[in-house]
Specification:
single chain, mainly alpha, 3 helices
């Protein structure tokens, strides 16, 4: 039988930030790729546009702004979630 570890290791922002940012970047790239393959009515860029400042459909600068925005959103979520996790995990 395995024992449950009672380590005092904290959740770290950096690994969570990299993981969430990479997840959002991959999702963004898949959505752009999907948008290139399907008809206009099924494209998802209309969902991304309000969330990513500077994003424009089918321009290099718009794609790069969207990529950077997705990456930064990952870090924002990581910082907020890890800090909230640490706050609620602390002993009462």
């Amino acid at each position: 039988m395995s024992e449950v570890s009672n380590s005092k290791e904290e959740l770290k922002v950096a690994p969570v930030g990299h993981a969430l940012s990479l997840f959002l970047v991959i999702s963004y790239i898949l959505c752009v790729g999907f948008g290139l393959l399907v008809p206009e009515s099924a494209r998802m860029y209309k969902a991304w546009a309000p969330l990513l400042p500077g994003f424009e459909w089918l321009t290099v600068s718009g794609f790069l702004f969207g990529l950077a925005g997705a990456y930064l959103y990952g870090w924002y979520i990581a910082v907020v979630c890890v800090l909230l996790y640490r706050f609620f995990k602390r002993p009462s």
